[in-house]
Amino acid sequence: MKAKDIEQYVVRPALRALGVYDDRMYTEASVQLMMGTIAQESDLGAFSSQIGGGPALGLGQVERNTHTDNMINFAWSRKDLLSCLQSVSLLPITNHFTDEPEFFYSEEFHLQLEYNWIYNVAHARLKFWRAPKDLPKMDDLLGMGMYWDTHYNANPRHGTPKDWVDSYKYFVLGER
Question: 110 to each of 3, 68, 94, 113, how far by Cα in Å?
Fold first, then answer.
């Protein structure tokens, strides 16, 4: 899939859904951040699961623990946000909060991260949303890379801010 298609059919719909909860979820800067994150994490969708069998899945390489934490410790107490996530989910997630909370630890629940790209991007955006600092300005690519490294990556063996910028330029902008 081309970068413009991922942006149009995956990233923007995911952020638009979250924007119902808070319009700051869907900004041009957040689109740029998510496109760069997808470029860095999965080579723009070339990898749907973490190389070496790690816990990360999908376009944004969202980890299972992050997924569960987003749902139980963040979305659960924000019913409007939960509705936004349900709108992009292929599973009936809202039923499980009272009846089966263990569902949020199941492989069935986590597999959606790998196969439902819109849902995956929504959870990647939530991870950034929960960071204590504002997003960098649009087109501040190094700032975006540093933001990604601090609030998403946090493992210098798996990428640096420069790597994020290089991935964005290569996969999103097509600079060779």
Answer: 25, 8, 15, 6
